[in-house]
Design a protein that fits this description.
Layout (H helix, E strand, L loop, with lengths): L1 E4 H14 L5 E7 L2 E8 L13 H13 L3 E9 L8 H5 L7 E6 L7 E8 L2 E5 L1 E4 L1
Parallel strand pairs: 1-8, 4-5
Antiparallel strand pairs: 2-3, 2-4, 5-6, 6-7
Length: about 130
């Protein structure tokens, strides 16, 4: 189970909505399965079909997480016009071990769907999300 504070969950959804119609991306820091921090990234590809995080922003996020005693718990991105499930490209590019993948679908913009997955060697496993106060 991936545990996400409601404030961070909401901020991820707002990031996705504000970035529409492009994909947005970011990193969630914390420990174990609990998210504690949010690092929105720039999608340098500026695409509605895929994303690439700005390497400088990634480096700064990792540095900040280390300083706070955290590590990367999840990578998130949005699917502006498709379901909240990993695409073939998402699966192919899921190269960071032991990291959750959070996908925000804006297929129905009024009712965003957020789902989490573990992706390892091409195998996709859904992971429940617990939203906390």
């Amino acid at each position: 189970m991936l545990v996400i504070p409601e404030k961070i969950h909401r901020a991820v959804v707002v990031h996705a909505q504000n970035g529409f119609p492009l994909e947005v991306c970011g990193i969630l820091g914390g420990d174990g399965t609990t998210v504690k921090s949010l690092y929105p990234m720039t999608n340098t590809d500026a695409s509605n079909e895929h994303f690439m995080m700005d390497p400088r922003e990634q480096f700064a996020a990792v540095k900040a997480m280390r300083a706070d005693g955290e590590w990367m718990v999840a990578i998130y991105h949005s699917h502006p016009e498709s379901p909240a499930r990993p695409s073939q490209e998402d699966i192919r590019l899921a190269l960071t071990p032991d990291v959750y993948h959070l996908i925000v679908s804006l297929q129905d913009r009024e009712h965003p769907v957020v789902r989490a997955f573990r992706i390892s060697e091409g195998v996709v496993d859904p992971v429940p999300i617990e939203i906390t106060n």
